[in-house]
């Protein structure tokens, strides 16, 4: 694949040039932004089994991490505070390390079948309060820590992205078997995947067993 080079003639370098490409923001798009979790936002969060959390380190290196659990896994402590349990993962800790360096976070809450999404921005703190962690136990396993977010902005996001992508439409679901497994992709791009099919299947089965054993 040939390397891509930007043509500087078409690079947008300032906000005035950017906004000149678009119509003025609709008043409702500005007014919808709230500084706390209203009853509808709270209801949305209580129904959501999935969110993405965006973070950055002090150098501006960005990361987006998915978080998922049964619906209602994010607890609302008050109208300006919510808490997210940190479940077992790959222990890279990218999100958590970023929060220590730069507490500003962005959250996107998603509900399967809903074309709308809820965006929440705020400042995050990592906590290990035993009582709080115990309240988020699943299968008698409490998380090691939780992410408490002090909310600064809340607003609903329109349905266009989900409708363009047909994300919830079974007619547009893709066959996962048309791509290699997660482990094979990683091995292909690093140390190399085994050529023996039985050996590769065993590695895939081991991953599935690890999922079952370490989900919580």
Automatic annotation (TrEMBL):
Entry superkingdom: Bacteria
Record-annotated Pyridoxamine 5'-phosphate oxidase N-terminal domain positions: 40-158
Pfam families reported for this sequence: PNPOx_N
InterPro entries the record matches: Pyridox_Oxase_FMN-dep, Pyridox_Oxase_N, Split_barrel_FMN-bd
Gene3D superfamilies in UniProt: Electron Transport, Fmn-binding Protein, Chain A
SUPFAM superfamilies per the UniProt record, alphabetical: FMN-binding split barrel
Protein name per UniProt: Pyridoxamine 5'-phosphate oxidase family protein
Organism the protein comes from: Rhizobium vallis
């Amino acid at each position: 694949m040939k390397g891509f080079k930007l043509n500087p003639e078409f690079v947008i370098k300032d906000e005035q040039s950017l906004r000149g490409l678009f119509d003025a923001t609709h008043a409702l798009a500005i007014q919808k932004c709230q500084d706390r979790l209203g009853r509808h936002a709270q209801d949305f969060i209580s129904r959501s089994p999935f969110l993405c959390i965006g973070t950055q380190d002090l150098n501006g290196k960005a990361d987006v991490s998915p978080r998922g659990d049964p619906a209602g896994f994010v607890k609302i402590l008050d109208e300006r505070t919510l808490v997210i349990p940190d479940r077992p993962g790959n222990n890279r800790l990218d999100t958590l390390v970023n929060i220590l360096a730069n507490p500003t976070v962005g959250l996107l809450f998603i509900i399967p079948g809903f074309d709308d999404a809820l965006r929440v921005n705020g400042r995050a703190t990592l906590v290990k309060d035993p009582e709080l962690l115990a309240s988020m136990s699943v299968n008698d396993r409490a998380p090691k820590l939780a992410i408490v977010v002090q909310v600064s902005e809340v607003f609903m996001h329109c349905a266009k992205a989900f409708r363009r992508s047909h994300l919830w439409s079974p007619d547009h679901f893709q066959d996962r078997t048309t791509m290699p497994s997660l482990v094979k992709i990683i091995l292909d791009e690093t140390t190399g995947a085994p050529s023996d099919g039985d050996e590769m299947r065993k590695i895939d089965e081991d991953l599935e067993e690890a999922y079952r054993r370490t989900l919580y």
